[in-house]
Structures are given as C-alpha cells and as structure tokens.
Amino acid sequence: MMKKSNIFLNISSDLQDEIFEDLVKKESFKLQRIISQGHTTPKDEWYDQDEDEWVMLVSGEAVLSFFDDEDVHLKAGDYINIRAHKRHRVSWTKPDVETIWLALHSQSSE
Asked: Confidence class of residue 110 from pLDDT cuts 50, 70 and 90?
C-alpha cells in the first residue's frame, strides 16, 4: 500500500533549531522539507552548494539574500531556482509563524 503524508504534519513544537527533513532522496536529486521560525543563516555565512536548488515557500515568509545581488522576499507560493555556487543566505524568516519550505537539490545544469 502506498504511504501518504502531509507537508503540514509532524512538525515539532520545539523549533529552537531549523528542521531539515529529507522527503525523497535519490542519486540525482533530493527533496527536503525545511521548517523555520525566525531562523536565519548565521551572519557572514553563505551557502555555496555544488548542486542547483529550487525552493518554494509553502507557508510563512522569508528573505533570501544573494552575494553581490538583490534580496528576494518570498511569500507562500513563491519559488526560485538558485543555480549551483550562487552564494546565498536566509536573512529573515517570519518569527511568529512556521515557515515551511520545499527544497529540491539536483545536479547542476552547467
């Protein structure tokens, strides 16, 4: 029997740390659920990933900052494709509600 789940279920009430959960992991891609609530990337740290990353905000709000580029404010339903090695960080997530992300990491198209 096929197992189903729900993106809004099984969220810990203790969100002291941001939660990263693999939903699907294959050789060529990984789909994660990320849950933030006021979490940000530490100051002066940047993600610099070897793979492309497509992210969609399912709920909440966030701001992604890009090194030498403009900030992008995301609301529920917004998505963005971040190419490999595009340095970025989460500079803000809404502090009073859960921000739920879907992040698809895949082999770089370059």
From this structure: low
d(CA 67, CA 52): 16
Determine the residue type at 5.
Answer: S
d(CA 9, CA 42): 27
**CA gap 87, 60 in Å, rounded:** 23
Cβ proximity of 108 and 84 under 8 Å: yes
The Cα–Cα gap between 77 and 19 comes to 20
Check if the beta carbon of residue 40 is closer than 8 Å to that of residue 93: yes
Q: In this predicted structure, what is the pLDDT of residue 3?
A: 87
Specify burial of residue 101 (Cβ count, 10 A radius: 0-12, 13-18, 19+). buried
Q: Please state the pTM of the whole predicted model.
A: 0.89
**92 confidence band (pLDDT: 50, 70, 90):** very high
Supply the mean pLDDT for the chain.
94
What residue ranges define each of the domains in the chain, with the CATH number in brackets?
Answer: 19-106 (2.60.120.10)
